Amino acid sequence: MLKYKKILLAAAATLAFGTSAIAAEKLKMGTEGAYPPFNLIDASGQVGGFDVEIGQALCAKMQAECEVVTSDWDGIIPALNAKKFDFLVASMSITEERQAAVDFTEPYYTNKLQFIAPKGGDFKSDKASLKGKVIGAQRATIAGTWLEDNLDGIVDIKLYDTQENAYLDLSSGRLDGVLADTFVNWEWLKSDAGKGFEFKGEPVFDNDKIGIAVRKGDPLREKLNTALQAIIEDGTYKTINDKYFPFSIY
After folding, report:
1. How many alpha carbons fall within 13 Å on the CB side of residue 209?
2. Taking the complete model, does pTM exceed 0.85, yes or no?
């Protein structure tokens, strides 16, 4: 009888474990994979970066199994709404236009926009000094929108499918300057390609809130908000932040 009871207990434990495994939520996390240090694909083909590590930390708090999916920036919101992934962690600014298409969590960091250009030279960030210059930015970003809203007709605006392509044209002399997120510019300026360039002027916009996007009405938003607060309180967020930046971006 004792042996029989042990068999039953073992079977019950196995069933409980199996049920728990089946019940584990499986989610797909979307990102771009072309915006270092926030999201990138490394030489081995692995997707990483600040955004991805934050997303993975949130998945751990939610006890969810998460798969990372990459998407081109231009179609990243349509891809979310087409259910190619469940939430989007891609350094996306919270704007009214985007809020019409998706819901956002509370911000997980705050961004600024700042010009970079060749070291020295006469590049200044006021409208009079910028007149006639060729300025690049990534398409469908807050930087590109800011240029169109504030400098259309003053500068020649060139928009790119990726941030890297904007930097390539800056390096080759086809652009006089680039407007982009301060922290992304900061990362590029540390690279070999960026050594001959520097920040110009103060940030032109310094309260850009970055959120995680989900489909409209998805209860996953509140789960992510709860998980975000948890990783901030237990120090996980700071650990990830310090891995990428010698200052807080929260």
Report:
1. 12
2. yes
pLDDT of 126 > 50? The answer is yes
Dist. CA 25–CA 17, nearest whole Å: 15
Tokens 């199994």 map to which residue?
A: 65
Give me the phi and psi of 155, to 5 degrees please.
Answer: -120, 165
How many other C-beta atoms are found inside a 10 Å radius of the C-beta of residue 241?
A: 19
Place of tokens 């850009």: 208
- C-alpha pair distances (Å), 118 with each of 178, 197, 206: 10, 4, 22
Output the average pLDDT for the chain: 92
Q: Please give the domain boundaries of the chain with CATH numbers for all domains.
A: 27-110+208-244 (3.40.190.10), 111-207 (3.40.190.10)
Does 180 score more than 80 pLDDT? yes
pLDDT tens profile 211-220: 999 999 999 9
Tokens of 129: 């000094």
Instruction: Report the length, in residues, of the chain.
Output: 250
